[in-house]
Design a protein that fits this description.
The chain is α+β, with helices and mostly antiparallel strands and 270 residues long. It is built from 9 helices and 10 strands. The chain has helices at residues 4-17, 39-45, 89-94, 129-136, 147-155, 161-166, 176-186, 199-218, 232-236, and strands at residues 23-28, 51-57, 60-65, 70-74, 79-84, 100-106, 111-116, 122-126, 249-253, 256-260. Strand 2 and strand 3 (60-65) form a beta hairpin. The two termini are 33 Å apart. The protein binds a DNA duplex (14 and 14 nucleotides) through helix 7.
Length: 270
Amino acid sequence: MPELPEVEIYRRYLENTSLNQPIHHIEIRDAKILRVPNPEVFAKSLVRIQFKKISRRGKYLFIHLSSGEILLFHFGMTGNLRYDSNTKLQELDAKITRFDRIRFHFQSNKVLSFISQRKFARIELWHSIDDFINKRKIGPDALNITYPQFSRAIQSSKRPIKAILLDQHRIAGIGNLYADEALFQSKINPLILGSQISETQIKKLHEVIQNILQIAIDHNAQYGEFPSNFFLHARVINGKCPICGKELEKRIVGQRTTIFCTICQPLISL
DNA sequence: CTCAGTGTTCAGTG
DNA sequence: TCACTGAACACTGA
């Protein structure tokens, strides 16, 4: 599920469960998740290390280690976390599924599992956040991006707006669902090119994105609890436009399924 | 049985 | 170098 709001919820979860506990050992159940030169060496190097702080940029979660290094979590399409505080080993084992890919065993006997159904999720180790941001060229966080930054990110591209919103190099944190949500609430057609969007629309889009993401976080990223005016409710059932009632349009834009209303999100620039 | 899906990376093109 | 595109990755559920 992980777009920005989910990852922010994961960040808070780690902050509330996993700080300041020395690691006892790391259980590697699927080495593919670990994008490090040598998983065994990686695991050994983390023994006795603690998580000191958890931060986030877009969909990337950073664990600040007591060693000074940064453990990077990216959840892909299906990543999740589960912190087990049971003291009995049997009860801990009972909770393991085959999707528990990496497990961090703390000296306190608590266990943090990094879970992922599909193996698109990954864990990396970096010297610093700046090092990671610079090498991967990750754009500003969608919740923090200023209007001038946002405007430039949109107008400087000739790709469809939908593709721009999904491009983490330009703006970090928006995924397929929230991109459709933001475009619907802003009444912007997903196919309009970035360079062709009016200043008024960009302004509106910027506001709408901040608003949607904040509301999503406030509802713990639980889609079922989002306000009824959220497009997502109509989108999942592939139904009719919640505003005008017309059959929603479905197309591939920016390589992803895109659902929108051709009436409420006209192709002309306002 | 087939295919789409809350995402990224990498190779290749212009 | 840069902007962009399409394939690949892996597994479930409709």
